[in-house]
Each structure stands twice: as C-alpha cells, then as structure tokens.
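Objective 1b: paired records.
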Amino acid sequence: MTASAPTLPGPMDPTTLPRTLAALRASGWRSRSVKAELRDNMTRALRAGAELFPGMVGYENTVLPEVVNAVLAGSDMLFLGEKGQGKSKLMRLLPRFLDEYVPYLDIAGCPVHEDPEKPITRAGRELLAKTPADGVPIAWWHRSERYAERLAPGTKFADIIGELDPARLASGTSMGSEDALHLGLIPRTHRGIFAMNELPDLDDLVQVGLFNILEERDVQIRGYPIKFDLDIVILFSANPSTYNRSGKVIPQLKDRIGATIQTHYPLDRDTGIEVMEREALAPDTSHSDARLSLGGEFPVLVPRFMKEVVEQMSICARKSKYVDQQSGVSARFSIANYRTMIANARRRAISLGESPSVPRISDLAHIQASGSGKLELDLMGTHQMSERQVLEAILAESVRVVFEEYVKEHGLNEIAEIFSKGVKIEVGDMLPSSQYAERVKRVPPIWDKAFEVNASQDIQVRASCVEFVLAGLWAMDKVSRSSRFGRVEYET
C-alpha cells in the first residue's frame, strides 16, 4: 500500500524556521510531549492509508497492529522475540513518526535539547526568566538525531543515566548541583526515543534506574535531590528465553512497560523468501550498498526451487533436534546463504563466461562459510554433531522437502537401479552448463525428471534442474554422494 499523501510532517526548509522564542510563539507552534507527537503523526499516517513500516514483511496482521495500538495508547514498548525477527528494525522505524524538526533552546553547553516552553535544566529556566522572548535563541533538531540505541551487555549506570563528575567536584562544585553531573545517554535523549537492546543482560542497578524513569519520568543520581522531568519514549528488546527467566528482569520494571509486542518468524515459506530477497538484494542495479544485484555485467537468474531450498533450510533449522531452539534461527541465516549462493553462481559466470548464471545445488556447498556461527547447536542433546555435519543434515532435509513438492516419486526407483549398476555422475559448481547433458546420458530418466522441475530449454536452467534431481535422490536416500570443494559425485 502506498501513501496518497505525505505521511509525516515535512519536508521542511530549516533556514525558514523561527530563530527566536518570540517568532516561534508567533508562528503558532505549541509544545507537545514525544508520545503525543508520535500519536498525532501515526493518526495522520493511518488516515492517509500510508505504509506505516516499510520493509516489514509478514507482520501486517500480527505485530504491526500491536505497535500501532501501543503508539496510540502512549505506551513504552518491549519487543519480545527470538533473534532475527526484526525487533531492532521495528524500533528504528518509529522515529519516522516524529516531527521532522522540533525547536529547542540554543544554550551553549547545555546537555539536553530543551523544550522552549518547558525547560528541565536550571540553565534553561534561567534563560527564560532573564531574557526577553525576542532575545531567546532557538535552534532546530531533526528527527533522525532524536533516536538513541544501546546494547545492554557491558552497559553501566553512568553510561545511560549519568554520574557525578569528579573534575567538577574537585573544582568546588556542590554534589547537589546540576553542574556536578555528567549526564548519560537517556537524559541526553530528552524529547526523543531511547532503545535498549537485550534488556535481560542489563545490570540490576541500571534496571532500577530505568524503572525510576518509567515510573516517575525523572533521573536521580547517587541519591542526591537532583531531578530532571524527562520527556522520552523508552523501547526495549529481549529474547523470551532470557526475559522470562526468574531474576533476569526485576518485576517492577516489567510491570511498568506499557506494551509487550511479540514478534515471530515468517509464518510460511513464501513470506520468508520475500524477506530474504528484500534484505539480500538491491532494489535496482544502481544500488551501491552491500546488497547484491541480480543484474549488471554478470546477471544471475535464480530458479524458484533454489530460493525455496535456501529458505527451507531456515525452516528446518528451527525444528532441528541438533539446534538449540531457545536461541532461534535468525533470518540472517537465509539471507547470508542466499547471498553466498548468488555470489558463487556469479563467480562461475565470470570464470566460464556463462550468461545468465543459474544457481545450482553445488553452489550451496559454500554455505559452510555463510552458515557457520549462525546456528547454536544443542550441546546438551544426545546427538552430538559438528556444525558442518548439522548444516549438511539441514541441507539434505531441505532439498528433500522441496524436491517432493516438485517431482513425482514414480520413476525414482528406476533411476536408483541404474546407479546400482555402478554408474557415477560427477557435477560441480564450476562445471560448464553445456556438459550436463553429456554427464547424464547414462541415466536418461534424470533428464526427463529435470523437466518436471522446470520446462525451460536454457542450458543453464537445465544444469540447475539436473543437480536438483540428483540432490533430491540423495536426500531421499536413493543414491549416495561425496562432496569436496564444490565438486559432487553421485553413486549408489
């Protein structure tokens, strides 16, 4: 769905914005809290029928309505889900519902962006008390700078709340004075959004500080009566296995979080493929970031069944007895494997001059590089396997599942009988596509089965289909195979 009108305030020309408090008041500007700002702009976007969270696939009817409700309700939020479920991405999309620019008091050395009508520091209050409105300087803060994020492990109280500054104390500043403080990240995000990733890994003392902010909306440091009435939205992310573990998160903090948003992996394979392609591929051939393009000088054509095999690997891994299911299997597992498969197909195109290059099962021999480290093995289980063996088992299961959807079982035993007579077929990621027809001459039914997968006469597609049939026979235990450096030999 696309917006029929701008979803957010802007774009604005900052050079035309008021530069004094008098001019700001004359412009009709009114002070609003961050939560009111988010709610008003979310309302505008909903009324316009806009796409609220670009790039979030598969959450339209599950997660996103809960996020919208939390914004409209004015709640702080916890995104609860396993790794690779887009929790951080969702948090980073919320600042788009802030105003493009907000005004603040332009005070040299002030650690916070003061609301021109509701300053929280002594410096801000004194400026308004002692200076005529036409002499109070105003600057403007862009929404892209009003979001701050922190990863919980290693985070100290001083990092996000603040600490007394020893140098200022040594110079004679009183401990009870604002001037004695070095403010942390949360106070400096006053009038913005702060996100804390992996909440259960946060030190208990810091959790108490966050509880105080959620409850009272103020900051107290070392028990001294210095308070700042903060205007801020707090977001958290956590994994269910650690968040629900007793003692990891203090109950009082859990109780103060207004909304818990439960995320999930794609509910079906087609959605998973859409996520995988969106994250792995550039939207056009001119894209210059780290994402791949299928076009360009060495184009790559990816058959549907190869996309399904790659995504099915993640689905199988999420059910595998060899994988620790509490840690989850990130969508990055599919994305990295998909990129590796495309990269190896392109390497073949560059080396052999094939165009377009079509990925094959043998290209997936290289997922040992992209898949390693992305699965946490179940080391407490009775089946002890190396990561390489687990990846191989997951690949076999994925090929079997997809193969059974494409190819009829009738005729497979006939092929297996031919192999039982001593026939061997070697294929590989660097074998020219033109040689596949010759390689399978001794087993003609393989060529026929390949047409069940895809009827294209293109030799690169035919080569990919032949390898898929061979891999399917192996996955169904009708033939065996040995693999080394992208070269694969099939035999009885």
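Objective 1b, second protein:
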Amino acid sequence: MSESKRRPGTIALLGYTIESFEAAAKLGYDFVAVVPPGYDELLAKDRIQAVPWKFDRINERSTELAETLLGMNVRLAVPLYEETVEWAGALNARFLDNPRLFNRYWALRDKAMMKRKAQMAGIRVGVFEEVDSHEQVRKFFRRINEAEGRIEGDLPLGVHMKPTTAAGSVGHRYIKTTQEIDEVPVDAFPCMVESHLDGQEFSCEVFVHGGKIAFLNINEYIHLGYSQLLPPTPKLEAYRPEIRKAIEKLIATFELKHGILHPEYFLDAEGELNFGEVAARIPGGHIFDLIQRAYGFDPFGGQILCSDPEVTEEEIASYFPDEVEGKKQHAGNLLVYPKKKRVKALAIPPELEEEPYYLKHDLFEPVTAKVEDRVGFGNHYGHIDFAGEDADRLREVLLRFEELDYYE
C-alpha cells in the first residue's frame, strides 16, 4: 500500500502502540492517538497528533472524549489494549450511529458476562459464579469438590479466581485449599470464580471483517505466560477445521462485525473444545511479532484494516495470506522471568547462540538486585525469539531453553 493513498476522515487509536501508529501511517490513515496523560507529550516530539485521556475515569464527563474526537473529524476508534475496549465500543456507537455497539464491546470486557453469553449460545464453558465475599468463594469451592465426589482426605480440586475486567492473567489466583481463600485480600472482590479446565491451552488471533474470518492464527501455549509457538504443532493443527467452526460460532454469538478477537480455548483428551475467555484487542506475549515472522504480513495493520467498515473485501483478501499454505516458517518465543529472588547480572548460556533455531533476545541487565513479584504474565525481563521449519523441533527447543536460567 502506497503511503500516498490517503483514506477519508481520521481514525482514533486508543492506547500507545508504536507498531500500530506506524502501520496506520503506512496504510494511508490520518490518525490521532488517545493515550494516558504524559504519553501525548512524548508523541508530540515525534509530531504525532495525540489526545490525553484517563481511561480509568468513567463519569458524567466521559462524553467529552467523543466530542473532542468528533471535532477532529474522527470516524472510527480502534482499541489497542484491554482498558480501551469499552471506550472503543462507546465511541463507535456514536461515530457509527449504532447504540448496540457499546453492549457488544462490554460483553468482550466483562469476563463473567462473556461466559454467560457464551453459555447461553451453547458454547462449552466451565462452571462459574460472580462472588463478592470470602464466604461465597468457600461455598463455590465446596460445591465444585462435592460435584466431583471429593471426600475428606482427597486432594481438593482447585478453582480459579479472576477479576472480571482485568487484562489477561492480572489478578488471577488458583485456589487449592480453603486456607488460601482466607488469604485473599478484601479488595479482590467483587470477582469471578470458575472451575478448572484441563487440556491443551491455546489462543486464536482472529481478524474479522464483515462478520467473517479474514485470517485465523492458532497460537500454541507450551506453558502459558512462558513459552508459545505458531502455527501450532501438527497434533493441534489437525483440529483447525473444528477450531474454525468454534470461532465462527463465537463471532456470531458476540455479533462482532469488524476488528480482532483473541479467544483462549482448552482442547481436552476427548478432542472437545472448551471456551476459556476472549478479548478484543492486540494480544500480549509478543504474539503479533510471531505472526509477522511466521506469515510475513503486518498484523498491526491487519487489525486496523479489519476494524474499518469502509475497507473493501478485495483489499482484505489481498492483505492476508493463506493460513496454511501462506506459512513461511514456525515462530516461537520464551518470556523470561528470573528463577531467583535476587539477581546481579545477565548471564546468557553459551548454548543459546549455538542453537540453529535461535534468532535474538532483548533480555536486559537488572537495574536492582531484588526481583519483583510477577504481575499476571507481565513485567518479564525480556524475551527470546526462535524460528524454524519444524514445529515439533521448535517445541522441544523452547522446552529445553525454558529450563535454563538467564541471570546470575
């Protein structure tokens, strides 16, 4: 796409993602970045038009953002990270004159609501409840174990506690005993509790335009939050037809017409798919970087194009490669987090650079010796990229290097 081809109007990119800014410019969009206060000053130095906004502020003045953007000729909002999804829904409801859009986006934000909506559509989910006290968690824990036939002396079946609107695994707790329930801080409520789902966990990165799948990536988690690869190994790849069918039902259930979905599923021992949750923004874990390395197209630009109802089906078809035949290689990464509580220096194992599938790393020297507790699966100390022709071998490489420590 030539940079000289300009598109009508202006789009708003909600959040700070340099790759999205670059993709929008390359695709010929005029855009304004809506970012937390302070980031607008950084962008101004690069002559990028920006509007500061506190996304955690929802009150009677929230409509000011829409008025400001309308005054800048904005016709579309694209969410780049979790906390901007409902804002995109509210803004697009106004820009596109479709009041139902806000509720559709909100259902992709509130985890309890999304599971309820999925369950009503006949999608397989775990047992879940919304809770606002320790006692309600204890009751749920007891009922789950009673239903599984656990008796005194048996190892209890654990349950998960999750904030309803946090991104990814932030605030996620796995409760294995009643004593652990008492350790949950009061400010964790209200939240959601759900039963544990077994099986191979994977995510999909689904580019949707006109209510149809434009491109479906399957990302295989080796260990969630630590290692992953795409396209997946042959064992999971064999389920692509069933996964596509499940995604089509998910799109219809949540009535998404334009944008991206990042759902997570569990494939159980019987070959059945169980729905975990879904987001409607750029995935974490550098998954977009892996997609670009494996398939050769820019997914940041793909999100913007798919979000735009004015983009033609012909342009969408020409942008995305074939999901299977268009693969150039398999790509994977390790998200590195120190195995010690205190570190003093980066220590790259010599065998890393000797591995043919190794590409590069961005691990950094520790600023302080104390290693902070990990928040969700974020604040890692960098990641290591790998790529190669054989998915099974890449998986073995990731497992091997996941065991090593990169800090002394």
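The CA atoms of residues 248 and 332 lie 26 Å apart. The first strand starts at residue 10 and ends at 14.
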